[in-house]
Amino acid sequence: MVVFGEVDVVPIIGAEIAGGYVFNTNKPTESGHFLSGGTAGGLNVGAAVGVGYYARGAEGKSINYDFNFVVFSITLTYDNIGLHGGTITYGPGAGWSKSETNTKKTITLKDILSFFTNDDGCE
Description:
This protein is mainly β. The chain has one domain (2-117): Rhodococcus equi virulence-associated protein (Lipocalin, Beta Barrel). Helices cover 7% and strands 72% of the residues. It has 1 helix and 4 strands. Strand 3 and strand 4 (83-108) form a beta hairpin. The model has no long low-confidence stretch (mean pLDDT 90).
């Protein structure tokens, strides 16, 4: 599950960026903040906040189809296996686009716990 904000600026060719928090329901300590971005094609402009679900984790490369409907948008995400998940957001926007993005977690709950418990093998 993911909670995030996004910005789309795609006047035929452009960019989509997003950032937020991923809740890993299988491994809660792998939950963490993420950044995602990449190039996009289409006619799309918008800014929104939303929620979504990814079947196989949020990290890595993906192909995304983003459809903006004035006050909300729907995005379908595909990875190398197939349909990976989707999101719904609330915020102003219009148009649609296809993007190729790369998502990276910047810090996880496990990283924070390791920092405070000195779980890196150092004394």
